[in-house]
Design a protein that fits this description.
Length: about 500
Protein backbone atom coordinates (compact mmCIF):
# COMPACT_ATOMS: atom_id res chain seq x y z
CA UNK A 1 0.00 0.00 0.00
CA UNK A 2 1.10 3.52 -0.73
CA UNK A 3 2.14 5.90 2.02
CA UNK A 4 -0.12 8.90 2.53
CA UNK A 5 1.82 10.51 5.38
CA UNK A 6 5.42 10.17 6.47
CA UNK A 7 7.41 11.85 9.20
CA UNK A 8 11.11 11.50 9.68
CA UNK A 9 13.37 12.45 12.59
CA UNK A 10 10.93 14.82 14.23
CA UNK A 11 12.21 16.72 17.26
CA UNK A 12 10.25 18.94 19.61
CA UNK A 13 11.14 20.53 22.94
CA UNK A 14 9.17 22.52 25.46
CA UNK A 15 10.83 24.43 28.31
CA UNK A 16 12.36 21.71 30.47
CA UNK A 17 10.92 18.84 28.38
CA UNK A 18 12.21 17.05 25.32
CA UNK A 19 8.84 15.82 24.08
CA UNK A 20 10.01 14.15 20.83
CA UNK A 21 13.43 12.90 19.76
CA UNK A 22 14.02 11.75 16.17
CA UNK A 23 10.56 10.26 15.81
CA UNK A 24 9.53 8.47 12.60
CA UNK A 25 5.98 7.65 11.58
CA UNK A 26 4.58 6.20 8.37
CA UNK A 27 0.86 6.04 7.63
CA UNK A 28 -0.42 4.09 4.61
CA UNK A 29 -3.46 4.98 2.53
CA UNK A 30 -6.66 3.55 3.95
CA UNK A 31 -5.13 1.96 7.03
CA UNK A 32 -6.14 2.36 10.63
CA UNK A 33 -2.93 3.05 12.46
CA UNK A 34 -2.64 2.91 16.23
CA UNK A 35 -0.26 5.29 17.95
CA UNK A 36 0.46 3.92 21.40
CA UNK A 37 2.57 4.81 24.39
CA UNK A 38 2.41 5.75 28.05
CA UNK A 39 1.02 9.05 29.29
CA UNK A 40 3.45 11.75 28.28
CA UNK A 41 5.14 9.61 25.60
CA UNK A 42 4.58 12.36 23.01
CA UNK A 43 1.56 11.10 21.05
CA UNK A 44 -0.51 14.28 21.16
CA UNK A 45 2.52 16.45 20.53
CA UNK A 46 3.35 14.50 17.38
CA UNK A 47 -0.25 14.76 16.18
CA UNK A 48 -0.29 18.51 16.81
CA UNK A 49 2.81 18.86 14.66
CA UNK A 50 1.02 17.03 11.85
CA UNK A 51 -2.09 19.20 12.21
CA UNK A 52 -0.08 22.42 12.24
CA UNK A 53 -1.00 23.33 15.79
CA UNK A 54 2.63 23.02 16.92
CA UNK A 55 5.85 23.89 15.09
CA UNK A 56 8.48 21.15 14.99
CA UNK A 57 12.05 22.02 15.96
CA UNK A 58 13.44 19.81 13.21
CA UNK A 59 12.55 16.86 11.01
CA UNK A 60 10.69 16.32 7.77
CA UNK A 61 7.14 15.55 6.76
CA UNK A 62 5.65 14.29 3.49
CA UNK A 63 1.97 14.21 2.66
CA UNK A 64 0.62 12.52 -0.44
CA UNK A 65 4.12 12.30 -1.91
CA UNK A 66 5.07 15.93 -1.36
CA UNK A 67 7.28 17.57 1.23
CA UNK A 68 5.24 19.74 3.57
CA UNK A 69 6.76 22.80 5.17
CA UNK A 70 5.21 24.27 8.31
CA UNK A 71 1.46 24.71 7.90
CA UNK A 72 -1.24 26.39 9.91
CA UNK A 73 -4.10 24.20 11.17
CA UNK A 74 -6.31 25.72 8.47
CA UNK A 75 -3.80 24.89 5.73
CA UNK A 76 -3.34 21.31 6.84
CA UNK A 77 -7.10 20.88 6.93
CA UNK A 78 -7.34 22.16 3.35
CA UNK A 79 -4.56 19.78 2.37
CA UNK A 80 -6.60 16.85 3.68
CA UNK A 81 -5.62 16.29 7.31
CA UNK A 82 -8.26 16.51 9.96
CA UNK A 83 -7.85 16.03 13.69
CA UNK A 84 -9.95 15.38 16.75
CA UNK A 85 -8.01 16.82 19.67
CA UNK A 86 -7.80 15.00 22.97
CA UNK A 87 -9.18 18.03 24.76
CA UNK A 88 -12.44 18.64 22.91
CA UNK A 89 -12.62 21.81 20.93
CA UNK A 90 -16.28 22.70 20.53
CA UNK A 91 -17.95 26.03 21.15
CA UNK A 92 -20.53 25.29 23.81
CA UNK A 93 -23.03 28.08 23.22
CA UNK A 94 -23.69 27.50 19.51
CA UNK A 95 -25.42 24.68 17.69
CA UNK A 96 -24.06 21.31 16.69
CA UNK A 97 -24.26 22.18 12.97
CA UNK A 98 -22.41 25.48 13.44
CA UNK A 99 -19.64 23.60 15.21
CA UNK A 100 -19.40 21.00 12.47
CA UNK A 101 -19.02 23.65 9.76
CA UNK A 102 -17.09 26.19 11.75
CA UNK A 103 -14.84 28.24 9.48
CA UNK A 104 -16.58 26.73 6.44
CA UNK A 105 -20.11 28.09 6.70
CA UNK A 106 -22.15 27.88 3.49
CA UNK A 107 -22.83 31.39 2.18
CA UNK A 108 -24.93 32.49 -0.75
CA UNK A 109 -25.04 36.14 -1.85
CA UNK A 110 -23.40 36.99 1.44
CA UNK A 111 -26.08 35.23 3.47
CA UNK A 112 -25.42 32.28 5.73
CA UNK A 113 -27.50 29.36 4.49
CA UNK A 114 -28.81 28.11 7.83
CA UNK A 115 -31.26 25.66 6.31
CA UNK A 116 -28.62 24.06 4.16
CA UNK A 117 -26.16 23.88 7.03
CA UNK A 118 -28.61 22.16 9.36
CA UNK A 119 -29.72 19.80 6.61
CA UNK A 120 -26.19 18.77 5.66
CA UNK A 121 -25.11 18.28 9.24
CA UNK A 122 -28.21 16.27 10.07
CA UNK A 123 -27.64 14.10 7.00
CA UNK A 124 -24.17 13.22 8.31
CA UNK A 125 -25.45 12.30 11.76
CA UNK A 126 -28.21 10.22 10.20
CA UNK A 127 -25.84 8.53 7.78
CA UNK A 128 -23.80 7.29 10.71
CA UNK A 129 -26.85 6.40 12.81
CA UNK A 130 -26.11 8.96 15.49
CA UNK A 131 -29.07 10.18 17.39
CA UNK A 132 -28.01 13.84 17.64
CA UNK A 133 -30.05 16.89 16.65
CA UNK A 134 -27.97 19.20 14.43
CA UNK A 135 -29.85 22.20 15.84
CA UNK A 136 -29.15 21.37 19.49
CA UNK A 137 -26.88 23.70 21.43
CA UNK A 138 -23.64 21.92 22.23
CA UNK A 139 -23.83 22.78 25.93
CA UNK A 140 -26.91 20.58 26.27
CA UNK A 141 -25.09 17.46 25.04
CA UNK A 142 -23.42 14.74 27.09
CA UNK A 143 -19.67 14.23 26.90
CA UNK A 144 -20.17 11.25 24.62
CA UNK A 145 -22.40 13.22 22.27
CA UNK A 146 -19.88 16.04 22.15
CA UNK A 147 -17.25 13.51 21.21
CA UNK A 148 -19.49 12.29 18.40
CA UNK A 149 -19.91 15.86 17.13
CA UNK A 150 -16.11 16.19 16.99
CA UNK A 151 -15.94 12.96 15.05
CA UNK A 152 -18.56 14.06 12.53
CA UNK A 153 -16.83 17.43 12.19
CA UNK A 154 -13.59 15.64 11.33
CA UNK A 155 -15.38 13.32 8.91
CA UNK A 156 -17.22 16.18 7.16
CA UNK A 157 -13.95 17.68 6.00
CA UNK A 158 -13.39 14.89 3.47
CA UNK A 159 -9.87 14.40 4.68
CA UNK A 160 -7.37 11.81 3.49
CA UNK A 161 -6.00 11.37 6.98
CA UNK A 162 -8.09 11.68 10.12
CA UNK A 163 -6.29 11.81 13.45
CA UNK A 164 -8.31 10.70 16.45
CA UNK A 165 -6.63 11.47 19.76
CA UNK A 166 -8.34 9.27 22.36
CA UNK A 167 -11.79 9.46 20.78
CA UNK A 168 -13.16 6.60 22.87
CA UNK A 169 -12.10 7.76 26.33
CA UNK A 170 -15.55 9.13 27.10
CA UNK A 171 -17.56 6.67 25.00
CA UNK A 172 -19.41 3.61 26.23
CA UNK A 173 -18.97 0.30 24.46
CA UNK A 174 -22.07 0.90 22.37
CA UNK A 175 -20.91 4.30 21.18
CA UNK A 176 -17.43 2.97 20.60
CA UNK A 177 -19.03 0.39 18.31
CA UNK A 178 -20.72 3.23 16.34
CA UNK A 179 -17.37 4.96 16.04
CA UNK A 180 -15.79 1.77 14.75
CA UNK A 181 -18.49 1.53 12.11
CA UNK A 182 -17.64 5.05 11.04
CA UNK A 183 -13.96 4.13 10.91
CA UNK A 184 -14.71 1.05 8.78
CA UNK A 185 -16.63 3.20 6.29
CA UNK A 186 -13.79 5.72 6.15
CA UNK A 187 -11.30 2.94 5.57
CA UNK A 188 -13.42 1.51 2.77
CA UNK A 189 -13.27 4.95 1.16
CA UNK A 190 -9.47 4.94 1.33
CA UNK A 191 -9.20 7.35 4.26
CA UNK A 192 -6.37 6.66 6.70
CA UNK A 193 -7.07 6.96 10.40
CA UNK A 194 -4.49 7.53 13.13
CA UNK A 195 -6.05 6.16 16.27
CA UNK A 196 -4.82 6.87 19.79
CA UNK A 197 -6.20 4.94 22.75
CA UNK A 198 -5.17 3.49 26.09
CA UNK A 199 -7.75 0.72 25.76
CA UNK A 200 -5.61 -1.89 24.10
CA UNK A 201 -8.47 -4.22 23.18
CA UNK A 202 -9.75 -1.55 20.80
CA UNK A 203 -6.50 -1.69 18.88
CA UNK A 204 -6.97 -5.38 18.20
CA UNK A 205 -10.50 -4.76 17.09
CA UNK A 206 -10.05 -1.88 14.68
CA UNK A 207 -6.39 -1.23 13.81
CA UNK A 208 -4.18 -2.65 11.06
CA UNK A 209 -0.79 -1.46 12.21
CA UNK A 210 0.75 0.39 15.10
CA UNK A 211 3.68 2.57 16.07
CA UNK A 212 4.94 2.72 19.65
CA UNK A 213 6.45 5.77 21.32
CA UNK A 214 8.22 5.71 24.65
CA UNK A 215 9.55 8.78 26.39
CA UNK A 216 9.48 10.78 23.17
CA UNK A 217 11.35 8.15 21.16
CA UNK A 218 10.21 5.83 18.39
CA UNK A 219 10.32 2.27 19.77
CA UNK A 220 9.02 0.27 16.83
CA UNK A 221 6.09 -0.58 14.61
CA UNK A 222 4.20 -3.75 13.78
CA UNK A 223 1.24 -5.23 12.01
CA UNK A 224 -1.43 -5.83 14.65
CA UNK A 225 -1.91 -9.41 13.53
CA UNK A 226 1.74 -10.14 14.29
CA UNK A 227 1.71 -9.01 17.91
CA UNK A 228 0.15 -10.04 21.23
CA UNK A 229 -1.24 -7.73 23.86
CA UNK A 230 1.60 -8.55 26.23
CA UNK A 231 4.21 -7.82 23.59
CA UNK A 232 2.51 -4.52 22.92
CA UNK A 233 2.56 -3.60 26.60
CA UNK A 234 6.22 -4.52 26.89
CA UNK A 235 7.04 -2.26 23.95
CA UNK A 236 5.06 0.56 25.55
CA UNK A 237 6.40 0.45 29.07
CA UNK A 238 9.77 -1.18 28.50
CA UNK A 239 9.10 -4.03 30.93
CA UNK A 240 6.57 -6.76 31.47
CA UNK A 241 3.39 -5.99 33.35
CA UNK A 242 2.48 -8.56 35.95
CA UNK A 243 -1.10 -8.99 37.04
CA UNK A 244 -3.28 -6.06 36.00
CA UNK A 245 -5.42 -6.28 39.15
CA UNK A 246 -3.24 -6.61 42.26
CA UNK A 247 -4.41 -8.73 45.23
CA UNK A 248 -6.45 -6.98 47.89
CA UNK A 249 -6.45 -7.74 51.60
CA UNK A 250 -8.99 -5.50 53.26
CA UNK A 251 -11.53 -6.28 55.91
CA UNK A 252 -15.06 -5.38 54.95
CA UNK A 253 -17.01 -3.91 57.89
CA UNK A 254 -20.39 -2.33 58.53
CA UNK A 255 -22.35 -0.16 56.12
CA UNK A 256 -20.96 3.33 56.75
CA UNK A 257 -22.10 5.23 53.68
CA UNK A 258 -25.68 5.07 52.59
CA UNK A 259 -27.86 6.94 50.14
CA UNK A 260 -31.63 6.64 50.05
CA UNK A 261 -34.04 7.55 47.28
CA UNK A 262 -31.92 10.06 45.40
CA UNK A 263 -33.98 11.63 42.60
CA UNK A 264 -33.58 14.58 40.28
CA UNK A 265 -37.33 14.97 39.84
CA UNK A 266 -36.94 14.10 36.17
CA UNK A 267 -35.99 10.83 34.58
CA UNK A 268 -32.19 10.92 34.74
CA UNK A 269 -32.00 9.74 38.35
CA UNK A 270 -34.95 7.95 39.91
CA UNK A 271 -34.98 6.73 43.48
CA UNK A 272 -31.39 5.58 43.69
CA UNK A 273 -30.52 3.82 46.96
CA UNK A 274 -27.47 1.83 47.98
CA UNK A 275 -25.06 1.32 50.85
CA UNK A 276 -21.31 0.86 50.99
CA UNK A 277 -19.31 -0.88 53.71
CA UNK A 278 -16.17 0.25 55.45
CA UNK A 279 -13.20 -1.17 53.58
CA UNK A 280 -15.28 -2.02 50.53
CA UNK A 281 -14.98 -1.11 46.87
CA UNK A 282 -18.45 -0.79 45.39
CA UNK A 283 -18.47 -0.77 41.59
CA UNK A 284 -21.23 1.08 39.76
CA UNK A 285 -21.67 0.03 36.18
CA UNK A 286 -24.10 1.20 33.54
CA UNK A 287 -24.21 2.30 29.95
CA UNK A 288 -23.65 5.97 29.22
CA UNK A 289 -26.90 7.74 30.07
CA UNK A 290 -27.79 5.30 32.85
CA UNK A 291 -27.53 8.14 35.37
CA UNK A 292 -24.46 7.00 37.26
CA UNK A 293 -22.46 10.23 37.13
CA UNK A 294 -25.60 12.29 37.60
CA UNK A 295 -26.44 10.40 40.79
CA UNK A 296 -22.89 10.82 42.11
CA UNK A 297 -22.97 14.55 41.40
CA UNK A 298 -26.16 14.90 43.41
CA UNK A 299 -24.78 12.89 46.30
CA UNK A 300 -21.71 15.12 46.43
CA UNK A 301 -23.73 18.33 46.16
CA UNK A 302 -22.46 19.38 42.73
CA UNK A 303 -25.96 19.31 41.26
CA UNK A 304 -29.17 19.84 43.23
CA UNK A 305 -31.35 16.87 44.07
CA UNK A 306 -35.11 17.01 44.43
CA UNK A 307 -35.24 14.28 47.05
CA UNK A 308 -32.97 11.82 48.78
CA UNK A 309 -30.84 11.42 51.86
CA UNK A 310 -27.20 10.67 52.58
CA UNK A 311 -26.13 8.87 55.77
CA UNK A 312 -22.63 8.54 57.14
CA UNK A 313 -22.22 6.08 60.03
CA UNK A 314 -25.99 5.92 60.35
CA UNK A 315 -26.40 9.69 60.79
CA UNK A 316 -28.07 11.76 58.12
CA UNK A 317 -25.94 14.57 56.81
CA UNK A 318 -27.17 17.51 54.75
CA UNK A 319 -25.18 18.19 51.61
CA UNK A 320 -26.00 21.34 49.68
CA UNK A 321 -22.63 21.90 48.05
CA UNK A 322 -19.35 20.05 47.48
CA UNK A 323 -17.98 22.03 50.39
CA UNK A 324 -20.46 20.31 52.74
CA UNK A 325 -19.42 16.95 51.34
CA UNK A 326 -15.71 17.67 51.76
CA UNK A 327 -16.36 18.79 55.35
CA UNK A 328 -17.77 15.33 55.98
CA UNK A 329 -14.63 13.73 54.59
CA UNK A 330 -16.08 12.79 51.25
CA UNK A 331 -14.06 13.03 48.06
CA UNK A 332 -15.23 13.03 44.45
CA UNK A 333 -13.07 12.51 41.42
CA UNK A 334 -15.30 13.67 38.58
CA UNK A 335 -15.28 12.21 35.10
CA UNK A 336 -14.89 15.69 33.69
CA UNK A 337 -11.49 16.24 35.20
CA UNK A 338 -10.04 18.90 33.01
CA UNK A 339 -12.93 21.29 33.63
CA UNK A 340 -13.84 20.43 37.16
CA UNK A 341 -10.79 18.93 38.71
CA UNK A 342 -7.84 21.16 37.91
CA UNK A 343 -6.65 24.71 38.06
CA UNK A 344 -4.80 24.66 34.76
CA UNK A 345 -2.73 27.78 35.44
CA UNK A 346 -1.61 26.64 38.86
CA UNK A 347 1.37 24.44 39.57
CA UNK A 348 1.11 20.72 39.96
CA UNK A 349 1.87 20.91 43.69
CA UNK A 350 -0.69 23.66 44.31
CA UNK A 351 -3.30 21.46 42.65
CA UNK A 352 -2.38 18.46 44.77
CA UNK A 353 -2.73 20.22 48.13
CA UNK A 354 -5.74 22.33 47.16
CA UNK A 355 -8.52 20.54 49.05
CA UNK A 356 -6.41 19.71 52.08
CA UNK A 357 -4.56 22.95 52.77
CA UNK A 358 -4.98 22.32 56.48
CA UNK A 359 -2.54 19.43 56.17
CA UNK A 360 0.28 21.71 55.09
CA UNK A 361 -0.55 24.89 57.05
CA UNK A 362 1.07 25.83 60.31
CA UNK A 363 0.30 29.06 62.13
CA UNK A 364 -1.42 30.39 59.04
CA UNK A 365 1.59 29.76 56.81
CA UNK A 366 2.02 27.19 54.08
CA UNK A 367 4.77 24.70 54.74
CA UNK A 368 6.09 24.40 51.20
CA UNK A 369 8.43 21.60 52.06
CA UNK A 370 5.43 19.49 53.04
CA UNK A 371 3.60 20.50 49.87
CA UNK A 372 6.53 19.57 47.66
CA UNK A 373 7.36 16.35 49.50
CA UNK A 374 3.79 15.14 49.25
CA UNK A 375 3.61 16.06 45.57
CA UNK A 376 6.94 14.42 44.77
CA UNK A 377 5.63 11.25 46.42
CA UNK A 378 2.67 11.14 44.06
CA UNK A 379 4.80 12.04 41.04
CA UNK A 380 6.82 8.94 41.79
CA UNK A 381 3.99 6.65 42.76
CA UNK A 382 1.65 7.53 39.90
CA UNK A 383 4.53 8.10 37.47
CA UNK A 384 3.45 11.62 36.62
CA UNK A 385 5.68 12.77 33.81
CA UNK A 386 6.72 16.35 34.51
CA UNK A 387 9.95 18.33 34.70
CA UNK A 388 9.10 19.36 38.29
CA UNK A 389 6.34 19.71 40.86
CA UNK A 390 6.11 23.38 39.83
CA UNK A 391 5.03 22.72 36.21
CA UNK A 392 1.68 24.35 35.41
CA UNK A 393 -1.06 21.75 35.09
CA UNK A 394 -1.93 23.00 31.60
CA UNK A 395 1.41 21.81 30.24
CA UNK A 396 0.98 18.21 31.33
CA UNK A 397 -0.20 15.53 28.92
CA UNK A 398 -3.87 14.52 29.17
CA UNK A 399 -3.21 11.38 31.18
CA UNK A 400 -0.80 13.10 33.52
CA UNK A 401 -3.45 15.74 34.27
CA UNK A 402 -5.77 12.91 35.26
CA UNK A 403 -3.15 11.60 37.63
CA UNK A 404 -2.81 14.99 39.32
CA UNK A 405 -6.53 15.06 40.07
CA UNK A 406 -6.28 11.58 41.55
CA UNK A 407 -3.30 12.69 43.67
CA UNK A 408 -5.30 15.64 44.97
CA UNK A 409 -8.02 13.43 46.37
CA UNK A 410 -5.60 10.83 47.63
CA UNK A 411 -3.79 13.57 49.57
CA UNK A 412 -7.06 14.88 50.99
CA UNK A 413 -7.42 11.86 53.29
CA UNK A 414 -11.13 11.56 52.55
CA UNK A 415 -12.82 8.57 54.14
CA UNK A 416 -15.49 8.10 51.48
CA UNK A 417 -14.23 8.51 47.96
CA UNK A 418 -16.19 8.40 44.73
CA UNK A 419 -14.06 7.76 41.66
CA UNK A 420 -15.89 8.48 38.42
CA UNK A 421 -13.98 6.69 35.64
CA UNK A 422 -10.69 6.66 37.57
CA UNK A 423 -8.55 5.29 34.77
CA UNK A 424 -10.00 7.17 31.82
CA UNK A 425 -7.10 8.23 29.63
CA UNK A 426 -4.53 6.54 31.86
CA UNK A 427 -1.97 4.13 30.44
CA UNK A 428 -1.85 0.44 31.37
CA UNK A 429 1.15 0.70 33.66
CA UNK A 430 -0.20 3.60 35.70
CA UNK A 431 -3.61 1.96 35.80
CA UNK A 432 -2.19 -0.86 37.83
CA UNK A 433 -0.67 1.66 40.27
CA UNK A 434 -4.09 3.26 40.70
CA UNK A 435 -5.68 -0.10 41.47
CA UNK A 436 -2.90 -0.66 43.97
CA UNK A 437 -3.63 2.72 45.60
CA UNK A 438 -7.32 1.87 45.81
CA UNK A 439 -6.32 -1.35 47.57
CA UNK A 440 -4.23 0.61 50.05
CA UNK A 441 -7.16 2.96 50.72
CA UNK A 442 -9.59 0.19 51.57
CA UNK A 443 -6.96 -1.67 53.58
CA UNK A 444 -6.78 1.56 55.54
CA UNK A 445 -10.50 1.30 56.29
CA UNK A 446 -11.76 3.78 53.71
CA UNK A 447 -14.89 3.36 51.65
CA UNK A 448 -14.67 3.53 47.90
CA UNK A 449 -17.20 3.86 45.09
CA UNK A 450 -15.93 3.36 41.57
CA UNK A 451 -18.08 4.33 38.60
CA UNK A 452 -16.71 2.76 35.45
CA UNK A 453 -17.79 1.93 31.92
CA UNK A 454 -14.89 -0.46 31.59
CA UNK A 455 -16.23 -3.99 32.07
CA UNK A 456 -12.86 -5.56 32.79
CA UNK A 457 -12.11 -2.89 35.36
CA UNK A 458 -15.43 -3.11 37.17
CA UNK A 459 -15.16 -6.90 37.43
CA UNK A 460 -11.48 -6.69 38.38
CA UNK A 461 -11.59 -4.18 41.23
CA UNK A 462 -15.07 -4.30 42.81
CA UNK A 463 -16.07 -6.23 45.92
CA UNK A 464 -19.69 -5.82 44.86
CA UNK A 465 -21.33 -4.27 41.81
CA UNK A 466 -24.54 -2.38 41.35
CA UNK A 467 -25.76 -1.84 37.83
CA UNK A 468 -27.81 1.16 36.81
CA UNK A 469 -30.23 1.31 33.92
CA UNK A 470 -32.30 4.31 32.86
CA UNK A 471 -31.77 6.24 36.07
CA UNK A 472 -32.44 3.46 38.56
CA UNK A 473 -30.56 0.64 40.22
CA UNK A 474 -31.42 -2.41 38.13
CA UNK A 475 -29.55 -4.91 40.23
CA UNK A 476 -26.81 -5.78 42.66
CA UNK A 477 -24.23 -8.49 42.10
CA UNK A 478 -22.16 -10.21 44.78
CA UNK A 479 -18.54 -11.08 44.11
CA UNK A 480 -19.20 -14.81 43.78
CA UNK A 481 -21.78 -14.13 41.04
CA UNK A 482 -19.65 -11.72 39.01
CA UNK A 483 -19.90 -12.32 35.28
CA UNK A 484 -19.83 -10.14 32.21
CA UNK A 485 -23.16 -11.58 31.07
CA UNK A 486 -24.98 -10.79 34.27
CA UNK A 487 -23.64 -7.23 34.36
CA UNK A 488 -24.67 -6.71 30.74
CA UNK A 489 -28.16 -8.12 31.26
CA UNK A 490 -28.83 -5.61 34.03
CA UNK A 491 -27.19 -2.77 32.10
CA UNK A 492 -29.33 -3.18 29.00
CA UNK A 493 -32.54 -3.66 30.97
CA UNK A 494 -33.03 -7.36 30.19
CA UNK A 495 -33.00 -8.18 33.86
CA UNK A 496 -34.30 -6.10 36.76
CA UNK A 497 -34.42 -7.10 40.44
CA UNK A 498 -37.54 -6.57 42.48
CA UNK A 499 -37.04 -3.53 44.66
N1 LIG B 1 2.42 22.99 25.60
C1 LIG B 1 3.30 22.28 26.33
N2 LIG B 1 4.18 22.90 27.16
C2 LIG B 1 5.06 22.20 27.90
N3 LIG B 1 5.15 20.87 27.89
C3 LIG B 1 4.30 20.19 27.09
C4 LIG B 1 3.33 20.85 26.28
N4 LIG B 1 2.62 19.91 25.59
C5 LIG B 1 3.13 18.73 25.96
N5 LIG B 1 4.14 18.87 26.85
C6 LIG B 1 4.97 17.81 27.45
O1 LIG B 1 5.42 16.97 26.40
C7 LIG B 1 5.39 15.60 26.79
C8 LIG B 1 4.53 14.80 25.83
O2 LIG B 1 3.18 15.16 26.02
P1 LIG B 1 1.99 14.61 25.11
O3 LIG B 1 0.79 15.41 25.45
O4 LIG B 1 2.43 14.58 23.70
O5 LIG B 1 1.85 13.12 25.67
P2 LIG B 1 0.81 11.97 25.24
O6 LIG B 1 1.61 10.83 24.73
O7 LIG B 1 -0.24 12.52 24.36
O8 LIG B 1 0.21 11.54 26.66
P3 LIG B 1 -1.31 11.16 27.13
O9 LIG B 1 -1.46 9.70 26.89
O10 LIG B 1 -1.27 11.43 28.61
O11 LIG B 1 -2.25 12.03 26.40
C9 LIG B 1 4.89 15.58 28.23
O12 LIG B 1 5.99 15.53 29.09
C10 LIG B 1 4.15 16.90 28.35
O13 LIG B 1 4.17 17.34 29.68
MG1 LIG C 1 -2.24 12.87 24.60
Amino acid sequence: MEDILRLSKINKSFPGVKALTDVDLTIKKGEVHALVGENGAGKSTLMKIISGAYTKDSGEMWFDGKVVEQTTPKESEEMGISIIYQELNLIERISVAENVYIGRYPFKNGLLQWGEMYKNAQALFDEFDLNIDAKAIVRSLTMAQKQMVEIIKAVSINAKVIIMDEPTSSLSSKETESLFNIIRKLKANGVAVVFITHRLDEIFEICDRMTVLRDGHYVGESEIKDITKNEMITMMIGRELTQQFPERSSEIGEVVFEVKNISDGGDKVKDVSFGVHKGEVLGIYGLVGAGRSEAMRMIFGVDPKVSGQVFLDGKEIKIHSPRDAIKHRMGFITENRRDEGLFLRSSLSANVVMVALNKIMKNGLINYKKEYDATDGYIKKLRIMTPSNQQKAMYLSGGNQQKVVLAKWLFSDSDYIIFDEPTRGIDVGARREIYQLINELVADGKTIIVVSSDMEEILGISDRIIVMHEGTVAGEIKKEDFSQNLVTEYAVGERVDQA
